[in-house]
Amino acid sequence: MSVSPFDVVKTISDIVKALLEIFKPLKPETRKITIQYRTCKSRIELVIETPDGLCRKLRKIEIPAWKGFRVVEMRDETFHEIEALWKKHGEKWVLPISSLPASRRFLIILEGSVPRDFIKRIVRVQPALNRDQTEELDRYWLNCMLRDVTILERLWEDLEVEDVDVGVRVSIDRCFATALPKEVKKALEATQELLAAARGRDRGKLMKAWQKYRMYTHKIPSIEELNLFVQKVTASDFFRDYVTVDHPFRIGEIRRGEVGVIIPEIMFVEALTDLNLQNPAAIGYLTFKKKLYAEAIKDELGL
Hints:
alpha+beta, Immunoglobulin-like, 2 domains, 4-stranded antiparallel sheet, 36% strand
């Protein structure tokens, strides 16, 4: 029973080793390997040479069509793109050597996916912790690094892992507790109790929650208005003004924490950075300006 190349090659390191062996007559050099941390997408840049007389000795080059990987680009030494030379035949990509233009060096780019487990084996992300609290700020410690850099340097000439995400759970419940008037907080609590009771089967509990809801909400703006208000102050564009990160990190996606509640207790904030063999580690802080955020909530309420 034959073994599919899809089963033989399981990681990007296996693919690189296989490519170097296949292209051995063309003096291959692995220029760069780029891995997208969040999407698990990868990019391999390989340089080959075509010495004189090669066409007579070698008619074509074949590489396995590894699952998820494909040749996406080829350029000559003047960086001119060479189109439509690679053809897929069954489970192989085929390059006819005789069809190459008159250049000695070529750049070949492959793109594909790598397993999440493989990325976790080469990147360590320390969960963000709230290390420093004052009345005005919360600061979360950010820390990530490439594992076993010495070994990685032996394997690859240039490796970059892009958009490494140190996810931060930023606590915001106390900001609302500080900013909202007592009657608004009670109305929101009553609303959340009503929503929870409505999802259950206890009619007595539902009626009690409904009575509490009516008692606290008739003196304040409608719950729909309150819900729209909370959505506004927890929107990504609004909240972004109150979080900063130290270099080399940058702010990525921001989203609300819990689903199905009016006031979430946390906001999820992505702190992104790129790691490579020259800069294999990144540390810093994410700072949440909680006092200013609480004041912004008051301003939006007109208090």
